[in-house]
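Figure 6 in text form: structure in, sequence out.
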């Protein structure tokens, strides 16, 4: 009997920096807390458990995605 994989979480963050000719960030680190790793391909909205923190720190590059 096959078990179903849980559905992937809905995207909650999107990269918007392309308008400013900025490249997406790959790693966010401030030295005090563990590094936040981001996916290589950010051309589509994606899920990240620390999306609120990323949007707060880099609001000009990332925006939250509101669910339907």
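Output sequence:
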């Amino acid at each position: 009997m096959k078990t179903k994989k849980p559905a992937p979480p809905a995207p909650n963050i999107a990269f918007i920096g392309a308008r400013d000719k900025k490249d997406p960030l790959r790693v966010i680190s401030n030295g005090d807390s563990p590094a936040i790793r981001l996916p290589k391909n950010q051309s589509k909205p994606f899920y990240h458990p620390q999306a609120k923190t990323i949007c707060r720190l880099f609001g000009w590059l990332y925006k939250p995605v509101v669910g339907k």
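Caption detail: The radius of gyration is 14 Å.
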